Amino acid sequence: MADSKLTLTLPSTREIVMTRVFDVPRHLVFEAHSKREHLEKWWGPRGYTLPVCDLDFRPGGAYRFVSRGPDGGEDAFRGEFREIVPPERITYTFEWEGMPGHISVETLVFEELDGQTRLTATSVYDSVEDRDGMLSSGMEQGAAETWDRLAELVETMS
What we know:
Blueprint: E1 7-9, E2 15-22, H1 26-34, H2 36-42, E3 49-55, E4 62-68, E5 74-85, E6 89-96, E7 103-113, E8 116-124, H3 128-136, H4 139-157
Helix pairs in contact: 1-2
């Protein structure tokens, strides 16, 4: 499968774009983003769990996730869904509760490719400092592991 690992680009001073191809149809990759029972199985890097997964998956609906690491430490994330176009696109805000007020806007685009799916995640930050802070947090490795877990899950759904 081509592009089966995450690629990350920086198209502007306030953006991060991540792309990966999954070996299943896009409706499955979209579904894995839209239901609590799926998110709990893949959201976060390897060794992490999602003990809190509050999800109101609709435009204007909110979410709040609490991720627990192997050391027992927890991080909380929250946001609001701005746009949902099944199975093509999801746009939402993203905020780490450890640094309130630093909110990015995330857009996920799901492209059908002959039974595979190209997922493109574009994150737009308020400033270059916010973007660079996210990059320096280890997010690329965490996102790669998270999307590996997503790939493993969606293959069991097909």
